[in-house]
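Hey,

The postdoc asked me to send both predictions to you directly instead of through the lab channel. I've kept everything plain text so nothing gets mangled by the mail client. Protein one:
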Amino acid sequence: MEIEDLGHLPNDESVIFGHKVCQTRNAKWLCISDIYQKFHRPNFYDIGGTYIEDIADYWFMYKTEQISNIFLLHIFVYDRQENKFGLAISRNAENMKIDNKNAAVYLTQSLVEHRFKRSKEISQNYVITFSFSSYDIDLVKDRSLYIFISFDSLEHKGSCQGFIDQVKINHDFKALLFDPIGSDFTIESADGVKFQVHRVILAGYSDVFKAMLKEETAESQNSYVKLVDVGNEDLQCILECIYTGTISNLENCNCINMLMLADRYNLKGLRELSQYALSERMSVENALEILIVADSYNSETLKTAALKFIKKNTMCIQTSTFKEINNPELLRHLCEYIIPS
């Protein structure tokens, strides 16, 4: 289960924090303030609760624990009613999303679902443990930690998940990519390779392509466009992602180019794939380049991963790429991050 990049930012009604009234049906975020200090004072702490109208429903708590250089955050939920329930919550603390403007860190990468059997009223239920390194802890200093949750009809969702998965399989358009029956548009790469494609698939995947394919545009009227800055191999990767939701030969793609093109054409799935691939390929030689690209294209997930890697491998700043950082704000952020306060 995926969460949109930072599209589901917390609003006051959706945040569980202290004794603020949050309706169970609206609950989307657990908010933990001063988490940096709490990690250094291991104990049990309250998060807050949800309500059904004015009746208390669920209450969340957490416990902090430190084992060597690993910091553990254990989440618990108390059910105020005697019933069974389901809860989905952020799967792990990897690829934390930093929001400097709001002094916040979000755990939103993916969700894992938990089901709890009918139990006695006000019973404690263990939910999940998040593991943080010392580098992660630096990221949450002076920021609030937001953990995505959902109570949305998990029982019903589980009963039809197999059907939903089958529908997804049936809507993989890979066959149409390699045998473009009914194609009604042509895209040409910068080096002259033409691809026969389908307007409806392009428009459904990208707002940029959707605008390009409106009736009054020259591209729409000619049923043709040449992407003068996209080579054949990059265009193949883009189209495969649009038609199938993935790239089968991802390890051989130029993922820096893919991230740039995903930003230009508003290709969310390609953006996520590129971020993942670049974070997996990070090395001393390319970490600074990835950091620069992530900053240029507002990829906070990838930027955070790069900062963490560079802090752990400070020899990165000895590479020639360090001299190519021409954004003073990024340079300041990097120096502040890698130099202990």
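Protein two:
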Amino acid sequence: MNKKMKKAFVVLTTVSCLTGGASIAAAQQVEIMPISAPITAVPISAPIEAVPISAPLYEIGQTHRLPSVQVYGEATKIEEKRILLGHDKENGDIPSIIVNVSEDTRILNAITGMPMKLSDIRENEILYAYVGPAMTMSLPPMSHAELILAGIPADFAVPTFAEIERVTKGEDGSVVVGTNRDTEFTVTADTTLNPYLTKNIITADMLIPGQKVLVWETAAIDGVKASNAAAKVMVFPYSYKGYVSANLDGVSVNGEKVALSEGEAPFVKDGQLMLPLRKLAESLGYEIKWNATAKNIEVRSGEDVLYSLKLRGTEATTADGETRELRAAAALEGGNTFLAADDFIELSQIKYAE
């Protein structure tokens, strides 16, 4: 085929395709969108709403303190100052443990709450113990017991040992108590409140953050357990000097809101909540004095110096002469001395209540 014939064939084929295509489009009534038609699109630069991820402004160290650990088992071996607890079933992550017993360890009858002696414990008797969270790496591990419950009958609901974190009064006169074990119990008019080894009268209004308690739950009726109601609560002596609640909105000491001037308002510095030293110390019943000779600030209880520190200092000296490094340097703002909340709580030996 010569070049002229090839050219003619290509032209005829092209025309045929175009006319044929037009006929098909007409027959099917196909709507053709022009290329120039506007298309709605979201620009890449359009803002996207997102939830910011941010760390808290500050944290209070005492709120992260671990509670004592509950362990239980048979007293397979009893020595002068320690007990080996063990059993066949799983005891959480601790199948057996050596429980060290000291003069500070309370050994109580699980039914009455009355004191017992180590010599009263029988071999192979079931015991519940509350031990410190710090344990040795030995096998079995060892830890010091804060409280041991003995004399436990079969199928008996063992009372719970806990520290009070918060107290809320209900509209019906009941009191809901939150503990450091992430549990709550309710004190009602039917709950028996007993102080440990004293004849003092205890009422629900006297329950405060920081108190350690032993709680017996209300027995189930027809197999139905009452909702967190406490049948009996034993209240132990208070080990703190008071309790404080603090945030950027204000401060309360022993449940009473503290009036602060504008220059005494809490603030955050380097991740620490800073609190006005004088106002809080005086609210606890202490006195602030300036020692011109030593050139330091003294926090006093009567004639006793509880602790002292330098202005803008990074260390504090306790009553026994121990030097402690502060988490944050004491700050001077508007003529007021501020101390980090963690430092004030530790040095003043108080409980932080959220």
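Summary for protein two, as requested: Confidence is low (pLDDT under 50) at residues 1-37.

Thanks,
C.
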